[in-house]
Amino acid sequence: MDPFSSSFLSSFSLSNLPVTLPPSTSSVLRISAVRIEEKPPTSTSTTTRTRTPQPSRRQIPSPPYPTKTKPISTNPPPTPKPPPSLAVTIFNAFDDIINTFIDPPTRPSVDPKHVLADNFAPVVDELPPTKCTVVSGVLPPCLDGAYIRNGPNPQFLPRGPYHLFDGDGMLHVIRISDGGATLCSRYVKTYKFTIEEKTGSPVLPNVFSGFNGLRASAARGALSAVRTLTGMFDPSNGIGLANTSLAFFGDSLYALGESDLLYAVKVTADGDVVTLGRRDFDGKLFMSMTAHPKVDYETGETFAFRYGPVPPFLTYFRFDSEGRKEADVPVFSMTTPSFLHDFAITRKYAVFAEIQLGMNPMEMIFGSGSPVGANSSKIPRLGVIPRYAKDESEIRWFEVPGFNIIHAINAWDEDGGDTVVMVAPNILSVEHTLERMDLIHASVERVRIDLKTGFVSRHPVASRNLDFAVINPKYAGRKNRYVYAAIGDPMPKISGVVKLDVSMSESDRCDCTVATRIFGPGCYGGEPFFVAKEPNNPEAEEDDGHLVTYVHNENTGESSFLVMDAKSPNLETVAIVKLPRRVPYGFHGLFVTETNLKKL
Predict the structure, then answer these.
(1) DSSP 3-state assignment of 423?
(2) Any known ligand binding at 588?
(3) Residue 172 labelled as part of a binding site
(4) What is the SS3 assignment for 263-282?
(5) Measured at the alpha carbon of residue 583, what is the angle toward residues 579 and 584, in degrees to the nearest 5?
(6) Predicted TM-score (pTM) of this structure
């Protein structure tokens, strides 16, 4: 959560709240909820594993799992939760008043019935490690390890406004060993999640949807203040969701969300996921960190940053190869708060994009919009700072009109370090980024910055609507040839994957697509991830590996794990694993080798 979204009042106590609920309140409140109906798999088998009813945090029936899926490990039966306390009941009543009368979810972008439709709906419960069935092909040995995908899965079905970015982080892990696979889905046990699980209801307002205008901001801010003063939660322990991505560095695995510190997690030998705790790196990491750190494959170093609504709006830092955090480099030359979701590194530099999307608390409070909005009068800039800078004295900013990026694919040096090249999807309709994602079109471009002359040139790499792009991780910060990007149809739904040959853009070719894979009618997936066949072989070709992702069939209600040949002309299928239950659409993933899993 951004700092301005969590301001609290200091003059409230539970005993002097001025609102009295009339006896008829329960007949007046209209609490909306999302109904989730999962289609049963179209399997010929009729045997199902019956799930024992339990006091679910959402009280929504869950369909049976497909046949022949026995959990490897089971948890003890849950202990029935006691009824909520009087204070919790009163707070929830105020929540309902705000959600019904002050700030109901009237816009599609924050209406749970719209946002959580189809496979964006959360799964009701966690899933312990459960065996999967390989229904096509063979899982190659280089996939021994774990593919982990992060994404939002709200612990409680929202009764008020809800944005896609507001859900609690859930990790969906497919553990692969000797050609077999197990699936496990676990929440990241953040402080927010743990407190709300104990309370039995939401405690913190949603950042991207809960502060729409002055009345909503004041009401939810006041309620949060009272909850804080009564000891229901302590915001200094973290208020983030850890729902965006993952990173492995310093022999540790982290779940990330840019509104908080990192949460260390572990994948066990049987494929289960354990949250180890929130990490501040011996007190050296403050408040938050980007969900897109960059790991240099050759040096083992990790580069990152944080951003916020108060100066310095950007702070750059790095971790050494052992995972020890180095000193902050505050960047005061960024004079307005920009939405800095991602960045890039080269061998010599770090590259930041100051785009037309910015953090706008005034619009959030006095208008009726999100804490992040577009400023059409602002000229986007790219900032280039030496990779090992001790301060911001050497940063240089270059205006690049119309260049708005959310994600960066890669960057590298040319001409002995006198030129920086960046490849990234340019959001052509940036004003729709949060409100109408279905109207977003992202065109991948190659941007070349001449550091000597200051001249900036741009060239299209692909005109198709592409985002969530990845490369062979070994080439981060180094010149690469191939990019694998998700096809928006429209975003946030992903209908397939393309392979781009960036080197073709150097010959003025406008579309560098060399391979395309469409998942099929009614089938949608997520961000692909590249796994090299021989990651430690210096002679291996850049595209000699596999692409992996989860795919969901909306016609049958089934989800699968898809493995594709990254080198083949059509990204042909190597293996398909049928998953024991639905995996919702999410954000970013990571593959961790068996060797690195053992280091955890």
Answers:
(1) strand
(2) yes
(3) no
(4) EEEEECCCCCEEEEEEECCC
(5) 165
(6) 0.87
| Torsional class of 300: left (φ above 0), alpha (ψ -120 to 50), beta (otherwise) | left
Per run of 10 residues, the mean pLDDT along the chain (length 600 residues) is 38 35 36 42 38 37 36 53 84 95 93 96 97 98 98 95 96 98 98 96 90 87 94 94 98 97 98 98 97 97 95 97 98 94 98 91 63 87 98 98 97 97 95 87 97 97 96 98 96 97 88 97 98 95 98 98 97 98 98 96
Strands 482-488 and 494-501: antiparallel
Domains along the chain with CATH numbers: 86-598 (2.120.10.30)
Rounded to the nearest 5 degrees, what angle is found at the Cα of 589, between the Cα atoms of 583 and 593? 110
In angstroms, the CA 310 to CA 334 distance is: 11
- Would the annotation count 459 as a binding residue? no
Looking at residue 102, what DSSP letter applies? I
Q: Which two tokens stand for residue 116?
A: 């959580």
Q: With left for phi above 0 and alpha for psi between -120 and 50, is residue 504 left, alpha or beta?
A: alpha
The number of beta carbons lying within 10 Å of the beta carbon of residue 511 is 15
pLDDT of residue 38: 46
* Amino acid identity at 447: V
pLDDT at 34: 42
Q: Given the structure tokens 């940036």, which residue do they identify?
A: 430
Confidence at residue 211, expressed as pLDDT on a 0 to 100 scale? 83
- What is the β-pairing status of strands 381-386 and 396-399? antiparallel
Beta pairing class for 381-386 and 349-354: antiparallel
Strands 482-488 and 466-470: antiparallel
DSSP 101: I
Asked whether 408 and 389 are in contact (CB, 8 A), the reply is no
Rounded distance between C-alpha atoms, residue 486 and residue 548, angstroms: 12
The length of the chain in residues reads 600
Q: Residue with structure tokens 């990204």?
A: 571
Q: Is 432 annotated as a binding residue?
A: no
